Amino acid sequence: MKLTAQLREKSGKGAAHQIRRQGAVPGIIYGIHGEMPVTLRENELNSFIKAMGGSKKLFELEVDNKGTKTAKTVVLQDYQRAIYKDLVEHVDFREIEIRAVGTSKAVKLGGVIQIIRHSILVKCRAANIVEHIDVDVTDLDFGGSIHVLDIKYPEGIRPVVSGRNYTLITISGISSEPDAAPVSAETAAPAADKGKADAKAKQPAAAAKPAAPKK
């Protein structure tokens, strides 16, 4: 189930009235990086809300920003209808955030956590809806990654995955921990022989044997 919205620059009551006069509906996405004002087509939104049947389902909202489209996993949080006619006047969405928790050894050594996907599509009942899903990165090392099917989800929530087990979080960078220089077999043998020679040189000389008595 998908819905499309247009990102809008203007907000406030004046802008909202102008949007409604054009046959559209103003809305807000309460997301990871703050509020995002959007505009939706009135007929599409009304059909979508009727199809939802009052349930709180997570779905993908496609936001178009001057041709650049971004998919956000949201829940229909609230909407307002006009008193004098059965039309939606305003709608609110909430984005479900992926949040990295814990500190991995790699980060302590200079690694950087990269969140590849900030939101995912999940299935749950309305009572189980959460604002964020925590992903533990404590055991994540350099070059490691966590996929959508690898994490532990809150009770009553399961991911909706069609196709590959896509990546959510990775650790990038190079360790700042100094590494010991590798020693080859060719250099190890002479070093060992030199050590033996040095040890032999440091040993006290053996006392000379007394001469045999003359007959």
UniProtKB/TrEMBL annotation:
Positions of the Large ribosomal subunit protein bL25 beta domain: 95-172
Entry keyword set: Ribonucleoprotein, Ribosomal protein, RNA-binding, rRNA-binding
Region (Disordered): 177-215
InterPro entries in alphabetical order: Rbsml_bL25/Gln-tRNA_synth_N, Ribosomal_bL25/Gln-tRNA_synth, Ribosomal_bL25_b-dom, Ribosomal_bL25_C, Ribosomal_bL25_long, Ribosomal_L25_dom, Ribosomal_uL5_bac-type
GO molecular function: 5S rRNA binding; structural constituent of ribosome
Residue stretches of biased makeup (Low complexity): 178-192, 202-215
An example Gene Ontology biological process: translation
An annotated GO cellular component: cytosolic large ribosomal subunit
Domain named Large ribosomal subunit protein bL25 L25: residues: 3-93
HAMAP family: Ribosomal_bL25_CTC
Name of the molecule in the record: 50S ribosomal protein L25
Species annotation: Potamilus streckersoni
